[in-house]
Amino acid sequence: MIEDRDRLAASEAHGTALDCIEAGIEAGHPRTIVRDAVGLDGDTLRIADSTYDLGGYEEIVVLGGGNAAAHVAVALEAILGDRIDRGVVVTDDPVDTERVTVREGDHPVPSERAVDGTRELLAAADAAAEDTLVLALITGGGSALLPAPAGEVSLADLQSTTDSLLESGADIHEINAVRKHLSALKGGRLARRAAPATVVSLIFSDVVGNDLSVIASGPVAPDESTFDEALAVLERYGIDAPDAVIAHLESGVSGEIDETPSADDPVVAAVSNHVVADGMTVLAAAQAAAADRGYETLVLSSRVRGEARDAATTHVAIAEEVQATDTPVSPPAVILSGGETTVTIRGNGSGGPNQEFATSAALELNGSKEDDEGRIVVAAVDTDGIDGATDAAGAVVDETTVEDPETARAALAENDVYPYLESRDGLVLTGPTGTNLNDLRVVVVD
Description:
With 446 residues, the chain is of the alpha/beta class. It has 17 helices and 15 strands. Helix 2 runs antiparallel to helix 13, helix 10 packs across helix 11 (243-253) and helix 16 runs antiparallel to helix 17 (417-423). The longest helix has 18 residues, at 308-325.
């Protein structure tokens, strides 16, 4: 899975970090998750702890989007076969399917081809009838991969606003509040388009806390955010949004455009949502991999958020405490965390939250010695294999990564850590992984 793994596995500690990453990503792959979460016995379809009588439906339609959507569709086809009548998913990681049409899009910034694919998906939703069972596949990355600009908002308007929000340091809840109110699909509007069909979702969560309204901007989930709040986000971060965006949001505030459906709206109240995988899925598998190698383990949290470089300082401090005082675990130990950190863009370079986390951690480790206390190795990846807008999943570093602290600090200041880590042989590349369950951070204390 990890390119040039042998070179990256420079020590036992490095190898352990990479093992944990691979185990976590594999555990979150749709073929693994769907096999466990979905079953078919005659006409009875089981999804998690719920069952559905397929005899009561004239057709089964698969609709969805996100980094893992095509892989989920393939896994469902292996179980349901020709019981699936049709479907459309939009993804940036296409694979061959038998019954479901796969349309390609782009992530993290929406593209014209994703708009075309989303329009096809919405047309399929519009065609659903009362005796249709819609299986909605909602995975991380769906916010960008399912763009459906509303009203007079253009794709260019949506791209510009998305870019500004991603660079502002706004959290995912704030970003999605805006995106949902600029979309004809997000914020429960897909459920509204599919009504009166029965809608059942399979959700692969890349959101801290599994807020259904935030995962892929909640296409079939109730939305409690408002047009007024979306405008407030733009104001809070000083976003100079295009005129069409402001006009659309202001029209919503004045009541000229219907709000997204809230929890008491029948079209979303009737949807059955099933979170079949999330950040803890990844952490549990990584923890088991570390334990198999003889390490004590500690899962800090699946909900780590905030500025990436600040989170790195805290993680290294905990590792140093483990090393110095055997608290809260004794070395050899592996410390794990998940969640989603953010980066406030101040420069004009390339990188991502996990690469900034790793670079900041390497600076903290700079100058420490692998003497009697042993080595600390830090690895951080985005489980979809795409950190920021780069081809790297993240990075792995230790006390030798930084030779010149000023060069590393300059790379962080310019948000240009990708070339720095590349020059230090620290980048972790996996290619698209078929899943997206948030970030995975591994700190190995030998």
